[in-house]
Amino acid sequence: LIHFYKRLFDVTLNLIITMGKNRVRPAKGGKPARWAKGQSSSSNPTKNRHRTKAKSTYFQYLTGEETGGADGLGSGKLTAAALMRHDALQGDTDAMQTSLDRMSIRDETLTLGMTNKTFDTFASDWTQCTNIAFDKLLKKFQLKNAHHKEMLAVLAAVTEIIKEQGGAETETEYFAALMSTLEVSETIENLSAIVRLLSLVIRKVPKEVLINRSSQVLQLLLETLSKHADSQNVSLIRGLLGCLSHALRVQPPAAWAAHPEIANVYQCVLTYTTHTKPKIRKAGQHATVAVARGGGDTPTGGEATPPSTSTTPVHPAASQAGQHCLNVIKNAGPGENSVLYMMVLLRALLPTLPKNITKLCCETILKLLTLGTKIIISTGFSSLYGLFSERPGVNTLPAELNGQLISALYDYKPNISDTGPIVAWLAVQQEGLLNLSQQNLQLAQSHLHRFCSEAATCWASPKPEVVKAAGLALRAVLTEASKSIGRDTCAKVIEELSAGLKYQYHTAWSTVLAVLGTLVSTVGSQHPQLLYPVLQNIADLRGNDNVKLEKEVDFVVGKAVASMGPRQVLEAVPLNITGDEKDYEFKRSWLIPVMRDHISRTDLAFFLEYFLPLAAKCLDRSKYAASQGDNIGHKTYQVLTYQIWSLLPGFCTEPTDISTSFKNIAKILGTQLSSRKEIRLDIMTGLRHLVTSSLEVPADKAELARFAKNFLPILFNLYTTKPGGSEEAGQRLAALETIKLYLKVSDSAMIASMFDKAMEKGASEGGSDEFTKEAILDLLRCLLVHVDAPRILTLYKNAITNLTSKDHKEQKKTYKILDEICKCDTEAAKQFLHQNLSELQSSLLTSLSKTSPSSQYPRLKCLISILAKLQEPQPEFASACLPEAVLCIKAANKKARESAFLLLISVAEAMMRWNPDEPEQVLRDFACKVMAGFKDTPTVIQCSILAICKLYYQFKDIIPQDLTEQILKNVLLLMSSGTRDISSSALSFIKVFITSTPLGVSTQFLPDIMKGITEMPEDGKRHSRVKTKFLLDRLTRKFGHDLVASLVPKADVTTHKRLRNIRKEISRKNRQNEDGAGGNAGSDDDEMFAMAKSRQKTMDELLADSSDDELDFDDGEDGGGGGKAGSRRGAAAGSANTAAKKSASGTFIQEGDDILDLLSSQAASKISTVRPVTAAAAEAKQQKRKAKKKEEFKMSSDGRLIITEDMDDGDGGDDTDDDHQVGGQGDGGGGQGGGGGGGGTGAGSDEEETFESLVATKKRKIGSETASVRSRMSTTSKGESMYKPGGSGIHRPLAPGSEYKSKKSRGDVKLKGRPDPYAYIPMSHKSLNKRKSAGAQKKSVFKNLVKAAKRGAAKGAKYKAKDAKKKM
Predict the structure, then answer these.
(1) In sequence order, what are the beta bridge partners of 1201?
(2) Which side of the chain, N or C, has fewer Cβ within a 10 Å radius?
C-alpha cells in the first residue's frame, strides 16, 4: 500500500505539473501583471518574459508535444500526415510504408492536421493500461476535467502495480486492486475516482467471481456507502449504487434465501429511492428495478417489451421492493412527494412483482386516485400504463386480476372535458385490454362492449384531443380483440359504435367513421349481416349534400368491400342501377369506383352473374339513347358500362373460384377482347392478374392453360394489327405483356405449333409489310424462351441474315433476338449456344461496320452475355470486342454508353478469369491496348481516356504502381492538348484518381498533377473551369492549402486567387461545423451510469397539461407600449396574467339540478381540472370570432356604401389608430426595452419583410435596415410628419381623390382641367328624358367626367398614327 500511494502521488504530481506549467499565474496576494499603457500593441514591448518562454517551447509546439492535440488547443505543422507527404514527395516509399506500419492505420483515415497523439489517446502518455474495460475513460478523457485526472492517476498506479507483479491485466485483477484501494482510501475525490473505475470494470468481471466473493464485495461497498451517505458528492453515491446493483443482479435467486445479508444490502439500496436529490433518487430507482428484473435492463418509457411467459419465475427482490413501496405510501401523507416517488418507481417495478404484491399495489394506486389531485391521477394512470404495456406474465398479472382491474378503472373515469386525465385513462384501458386479449381472448371480448360504450361517450367531448384519443384506443382494441368474436358480443359492439352516427356526435364523425372502418375490416368477414344497418346509414350519409365526408365514407365502404366482398356490400347498399331509369341521377354510382379500388380475393362468378348482365343492359340503353338523339343518356350509360368493366381486374386478383368459374366467362372475354377496343385494357389486365395468381396453384394453372389456344391467337392478332392511333398503340404493348405472361402457363406443344406458324407467316410476308414482319419478330422473341434447340436454330438462321440489313428497325429486332438467345438460361438455349457459339461470334464481329446507332445497345448487351458465358479462354474474341466498347463510350444513346462501360469491364474480368494467377500482367496488357487509342483521332483519344478512367476506378485496388504512373503520365501529357474534349476527359481522369486513390499513393504524383493543371491552355481552363475548381477544392482538402499553393507558379495569379477562395470556404465550413457540434458537447462524463432518460413520448403527450386555461385570460394583455416603458407594461401584464392563471387553475365540479355525491362511483366523471366549456359559451365564442373576421361596410338607406378612411390628413382628424399601428411596429422591432406587449408585431411588418425578401436580388442584410425604418417610424409617430405628398411618380398622393379635398370646409371641390370629383352619381328617371338632356347638353354631369378621357384617347391616336407612318 505504501508503494501504491507513493506511485499514485508521483503520477498525480507529474500530471499536474506538466499540464499546468504553461499557465500564467499572478503573484501571491497580488493581481496579474498588466501591460503598461501604450505597450499592449507594441511590436517590441519592454516586458518579454512570456515571449522568451514561448521561444523555448517553439520546437515542442512544432512537434505537437506541448499542444495537447486531444484537448483541442491546436495541432502542430509537423504532423504524421505531413511527414508522409514529405516522404512521398521525396520518393522514399520505404520510409512512407514504415510510417504507415508504425502507426497501424489505414490510409483512408489519415487526414490533414492529424498528429501522432490522436492515433492512441492523450491519456496513453500517462498510463499503459490495455484493458478495454477502461476505453470509455481513455477515449473520452478531458484535460480540463479534474475528476478525469484523478481517475487517470489511479488507473496508472493500479496498472503499474499489476504489471510489476506479473499480472495479465484481466478484469478480475483490476477489480481486486481497485477494491483493495477502496478499502484504504480516505479523500472524497480519490473515492469517487476509484468508484467510477469500479463501475467500469465490474461489468466485465466474471459472474463466478462476484458470486463467490459476494459477502466481501457487498460488505465493503455497503460500508463505504453508509460512511458517505451524507456526502454532497453525487457521483460517488451514484457509483456505489451502480456497483451494488450489478453485484446484486448476478447473485442467483437461491442465494437470496441462503444469505439474508443480501436482502439487507438490497434494503439499503431501496432507501435511496426516495432521496431528495433527483440524480441519486433516479440511480436508486434504476438499481432497484434492475435487480428486481433479475439482471435485465430498465426499459425505456413507451416501448413495450415482449410478453413474459407463464413459466418465468419472479425474482426474490421483487417482493421486497414492492413491499417497500407499499410501506412508504402507507406511512406517508397524501401530499408528500414520497408518494409520487413510489408511484413513479412502480411504473417500472409493477411488471416484475408477484401477483399478490401486484394486487396490493394496484389497490393502493386506485385508492390514491380518489384524492382527485391532477398530479396524483396522472402519475397513477402512468403506473398502471407501465404495468399493462410491459405485457407481464400470469405470475405477475393473471387474466382474472387483469379483468378486475379493468372493471375497477371504470369507476375512476375522469370528466370527458379534462383532457390530460381522460386521455391517460383511455390509454390505460387500451393497454389493459390488449394485454388481456393476449392472455384470454374470450375474457377480453366480454369487456369489449363496456369499453366501447364508455369510450364512445368521449366523442361528445368539446376537446379534439379527447375525441382523437378515443378513436385511436377503439381502433387498437378492435384490431386485437375482435378476432373470432361471438355474434352476440359483436352485435352489441356494433350497436354502441354505430350510435356515433347520430347528430349529437356530428363534430366527431370523421373519427367515428375511422373507427367503423376498423370495425368493418375486422368483423366483416365473420358476421357480415350485422353490418348491413351500419353500411346503410353510412351510404345515406354519403348522399347528404350537407355532409362533406366523402373520403371518410369511401374509406369505410372500401374496407367493407375488402372484408365482406362485393356481394354482401351490394345486398346491404344496393347499386340502384337497372338500365331502365327515367332520370340520370344515379345516387349510388359512387360505389363503383370504391369497389374498383378494393375488390380482391372474391368470387369471379359474381361478376358473371351480376355485373356482366348489367353492363350489357347499360350498353343497350346507351345505343338506344344514341338512336333517339339523347346524347346525355348515351354518354351517361356509356360511362357506366366502362366503369362496370373496370371492376374486372379486381375480380381477377386472386379469385377463389378460377377452376370453376373461368370456363363460364372465358368465351365472353375472348369475344369482347376482339370486338370492343374500349375495354381491351381492362380485359388484358384481368388476364394478367389471373395468370399471376395461378402460377403456384396447379389446378388453376391447368384451367388457364386449357384456354391458351383461344386467347393467344386473339392477342397475336391484336399485336400484329397496325394501330390507328395512340390508344391502339398502348393496347398493342399491353397485348405483348399479356402474351409474355400467358406463355408461362401454356402447353409446350401448343407454343411450338404457334412458333412454327409465326415463322411461316414471317417468311410469307417477305418485304411486303414491314410492320407485320417486325411484330412477328417481337412475338418470336417472346416464344423463344419456351421452344427447343432446333427451333432456336431455325430462328437464328433466319435472323442472322438481317444483321447487315439497311433497315434499322429490322436490324435492331435481330440484335434483340440474338440478345434473348444469349441471355436465356433454358437448357435448349444453352445447348444451342454451345453448338453455334463460334459462328455467332464470327457473325457479330464481321457485322460491326454496318451496325446502326439504334442497334448499338442490344448489340453490346449481346456481347456482354456471350463474354459472361464463355468458359474456355478466347482472348481473340475479347480483344476484338475492346475497340467497339471504347468507341461506344461516346454514343448518343445513354443505355449504349452504360453498356459500353459494362462491356469494357466484362472484357477485363473475362481475361482475368482466364488468367487468375497473373492479374497484374493482365491489367498491364489490357491498359496498353486501351492506351493505344491515345495516338488516334481526338474522338478516339477522348473515348480511350474515359475507358482507362473506368478501368482504373474499377481495379484501383489491384492495379500495379508502375502502371498507375504510366497511365497518369500519359493523361497529364494529353491534358495540355488544345482540344477541349481531350483536356476535359483528362480532367475527369484526374478527378477520379484524386477521389479514389489513397493519400500515400496520390501524394507522390501531386507535383505532376498541379503542373498539368497550371499548364493547361487558357481555352481549356475556361471551358473546364467547374472541373478545375472541384479538383483544386479536393486537393486542398486532401493535401492542405500550403502544399498545393507551393506547387503553383507565382505567375499564375488566377490559380492562386482560386486557391485562396477555396481555403476561405473550407475554413468557413469548418467553423460552422464546430459551432454546430459545440452545442452538443455538453455531456457529463462524470456520470457513472448513463441513466436512460425515459422518453415516455406517448404517455408524456397523454398526461400533458391542457393549455385551454390560458385562452380565458388573454384579454388583459397589453399590446402597445414602446421602449422601456412598454417592456415594463408588458412584463406587468404578463405577471398579472400568470397570477390569474395560477389562481384560476384548480378543480371544477359539474352539477346539474342535484348536488353531486362525492362518494358515488360517478363522482370522478363530474370533476375536472379544466374550466368546463358549455355549448352556449362555445357557440358565443365562435360567433364572436366570426364577427371579428367579417368586417362589412356600412350601408345607407338609399343603398350607398359608407367607406371611412383610416388615414386622415386633416388637422382635426383622429390619428390614434395610425399612431398605434406604427408604434406597434416599432415595439416589434425590439427597441431598448426588448419588445413590449404581445401585440408588438403587426401584419404590416410581416408584409414588409416578405416583400423585401421577394424583391431582393442580392444577398444583403435587411434586418438592420428594417429596424432603422421601424425606429424612424416610431420616432415620427408621436408628431405630425413634415413630408407632404405631391407631384407625380413616387411622390404622388397615395390616397386616390385626396387632391379634391377642400382646405377650408368639408366636401370636395372642382379643379380646372380635371374630371369632376363625383364618387357617386345618382341615377333617376329624369336622365332618360331626351328633351331635358338635349336642352342641357352643355351642363350634363357626364360631360366633364369623360372629357379628360377623350383628350387622352385623342392624344394616343395621334401618336399611333405617327408610329404607323414611321414604319411605312
Answers:
(1) 1195
(2) C
Residue spans of alpha helices (H) in 590-679: 591-598, 604-606, 612-627, 631-645, 648-651, 658-675
**Around Cβ 3, how many Cβ atoms within 10 Å?**
11
H-type helices in 43-79, by residue range?
A: 49-56, 58-63
Cα 1072 off chain centre by: 24
Contacts of 187 (CB under 8 A, 6+ apart): none
Amino acid identity at 657? D
Cα dist. 1083→628, 670, 1077 in Å?
85, 73, 12
- Give helix 631-645 / helix 612-627 axis angle, nearest 10°: 160
Indicate whether 1221 pLDDT > 80: no
- Specify the pairing of strand 1167-1168 against strand 1148-1149: antiparallel
> What is the dihedral sign for C-alpha 564, 565, 571, 575?
positive
Rg (CA), the chain: 44
Band of residue 609 on the pLDDT scale cut at 50, 70, 90:
very high
**3-class secondary-structure state, position 1149:** strand
Measured CA to CA in angstroms, residue 300 lies from 2, 3, 275, 284, 353 at distances of 46, 46, 22, 16, 18
Q: How far, in Å, CA of 517 to CA of 540, rounded?
A: 16
Interhelix angle 980-996/1006-1014, rounded to 10 degrees, is 150
Distances from the Cα of 654 to the Cαs of 87, 690, 741, 986, 1309, in angstroms? 70, 7, 16, 57, 85
Quickly list DSSP for 685-750.
HHHHHHHHHHTT-HHHHHHHHHTHHHHHHHHHHHHHSPPSSHHHHHHHHHHHHHHHHHGGGS-HHH
Longest CA–CA span in the chain (Å) reads 133
Residue 1301: φ, ψ to 5°: -70, 135
pLDDT tens-place string over residues 1066-1105:
999 888 887 765 544 443 333 333 333 333 333 444 333 3
Determine how many CB atoms are found less than 10 A away from the CB of residue 1304. 6
Q: Which residue has the cell 484504504?
A: 184
Q: Write the secondary structure of 817-838 as one string of H (helix), E (strand) and C (coil).
A: HHHHHHHCCCHHHHHHHHHHHH
Write the single-letter amino acid at 1364: A
Residue 1036 Cα to chain centre, angstroms: 34
Place of cell 339523347: 630
pTM for the full predicted model: 0.65
How big is the CA angle at 1329 (ends 1328 and 1333), to the nearest 5 degrees?
100
Please name which of 1033, 940, 1016 lies closest in space to residue 980, comparing C-alpha atoms: 1016
